[in-house]
Amino acid sequence: MALGKLAELDFDAVIFDMDGTLIDSTPAVARAWSTWAQEHGLTAEQLAGHHGMPSARVVRKLLPDHQHESAIDRINALEIDDVHDIVVLPGAADALAALRSARNAIATSCTMPLARARIAAADLAAPSVLVTADQVEHGKPAPDPFLLAAERLGVAPERCLVVEDAPAGLTAAKAAGCYRLAVITTTPEGELEADGIVRNLGDVEFLVGADGGIRVRELA
User: Fold this and answer.
1) Edge-to-edge strands of the sheet including 129-131?
2) Pfam families, alphabetically (predicted)?
3) Is the pTM of this model over 0.70?
């Protein structure tokens, strides 16, 4: 695990995934989806492999068309109602604080109501630019969330560093033309394809130059 070439580059902006990157919502997510799966006669095996994707996309993959609307409404309600034991992951608060004067954003597969509920539950000081799955036509692994985040930040995607924990998000970042830093908070290192890989945000430090340029440095 190391930053690799990322340690030698300057970036105009940093775009963070949220769940699994900035906050740990794993228990709450597992409870909501377990309840939803039981209600719809699905197994844990059928749910596997969808981490990092918008819930609506998962529903559409698993259920027939006539069930989509009600099933999406149900998982959204379950997730918004359960924001217990959501915590900020190591290094996340420091990373956001360090970038307060720089351009940074969150691009998440949550809907806006769910993202706001989890941010509030974690007491996270989130950046002003927040892109959610209900703001784009195609969610991760499509590049749309990161492209929209870059547009709102006023920077070119290829000048952005994306921080992600999920293969779907890393695929989306690559398609958007962004550099990618992976954290192994939810997915084994061997399943992550990125320009650099670290354990979590506690392993790195973000430095902002006088011109607003951003560098990332690995902590000893």
Assistant:
1) 129-131, 104-107, 13-16, 160-164, 179-183, 196-198
2) Hydrolase
3) yes
